[in-house]
Amino acid sequence: MTKKVLVTGGTGLYGKAIEAVIKEDEAAKDEEWVFLSSKDGDLVDRKAVEAIFEKHKPTHVIHLAAKVGGLFHNMRKKVDFYRDNTLINDNVMECCRIYGVKKLVSCLSTCIFPDKTSYPIDETMLHNGAPHTSNLGYSCAKRMVDVLNHCYKDQYDLNYTSVIPTNIYGEFDNYSIDDGHVIPGLIHKCYIAKRDGTDLTIWGSGSPLRQFIYSKDLAWLTVWTLRNYDSVEPIILSVDEEAEVSIKFVAEAIAKAMDFQGKVVCDTSKADGQHKKTASNKKLRSFLPDHKFTPFEEGIKKSVDWFVANYETCRK
Ligand code: NDP
């Protein structure tokens, strides 16, 4: 049987990167890949999800679609983040079972780990305490994917697993200043500051630390997971711990990539979120010890150039 891979959330930051990686992948030439957008059906709606599975009959699924947003959007809409993501995940996972999908890779996030924890975080700690209150709704919905993966294994012996990426950045991101993640938000703010001759303002102190992964690196690792990783236990897909950077460093890298000559300042009246959430990629490194990640400055330059070139039409 030909492998038919359905990618939910195929038009977002992560999905577009998988599409780009697949275009250049020899091994994908004999496979059929389908990239879904919300226009193909609202995954919150069970009937729409059934229709999608009926139409495509996938053998493999990479499930990326989610209601996603930055810190401030998550803080404002906790119920919406919980309910939409719970319904999407339940519909997709159950349809995978009903329609005989052989392998499902779903997507979690390092921001769903316990707030009070030891560092570095690893895959065994996912349920060891409450998540940070800022994204409680999103985190609890996502954690249930891991619970269900184990349940599907125990009850139906299915090969369903999950990846846990750190913060992603790259082309096709959501550059909304109010609702987006920190890198696309800062890129957009830097563009405006350069255009209007104002300061580039970081929301918060600039001191929180994060690991960022370039979307195409993550895409390659996700395809690798689909083909090679056969455990129900989640796997963290992250750059090394040493690659953790402060938000201030990120803002300065963006300013450099955009040739912004003005001042970079911090608005400390805004929330910082978790100070850090350092994740260990030891499990990933046990499979791919020599894997090379795109250097941060290089990935930022590509993201900034893409935003400038697509300013009129991109999400913002
Ligand atoms: P985007 O917002 O860029 O893309 C979201 C995708 O999901 C889009 O294709 C969107 O379709 C689709 N989608 C959203 N809601 C629905 C719905 N109700 N029905 C059908 N499709 C829907 O998000 P990312 O690419 O950043 O995120 C992808 C995954 O990665 C998510 O599961 C997220 O939790 C996870 N993740 C993201 C991180 C990040 O830093 N961005 C970090 C860690 C994990 P459309 O384009 O039509 O709107």
From TrEMBL:
One Pfam family from the record: Epimerase
Organism of derivation: Prorocentrum cordatum
Functional pathway: Nucleotide-sugar biosynthesis; GDP-L-fucose biosynthesis via de novo pathway; GDP-L-fucose from GDP-alpha-D-mannose: step 2/2
Homology family: Belongs to the NAD(P)-dependent epimerase/dehydratase family. Fucose synthase subfamily.
HAMAP family, A to Z: GDP_fucose_synth
Keywords, comma-separated and alphabetical: Isomerase, NADP, Oxidoreductase
Keyword Transmembrane (UniProt): no
Keyword Protein transport: no
Protein name: GDP-L-fucose synthase
EC number from the UniProt entry: 1.1.1.271
